Amino acid sequence: MAAVLRAFLGYLFLVFIVRVVGRRPGKQMTPFEFVLVFFMGGLALTAIVGNEVSFTNALCQIIAIALGHYLVAWGRQRSQRFARLVDGTPLLLLENGQWRSETLREMGIADDDIMASARDSGIQNLEGLQSAVLERNGEISTAAKKEPSSER
Question: Whole-prediction pTM value?
Answer without folding.
Answer: 0.57
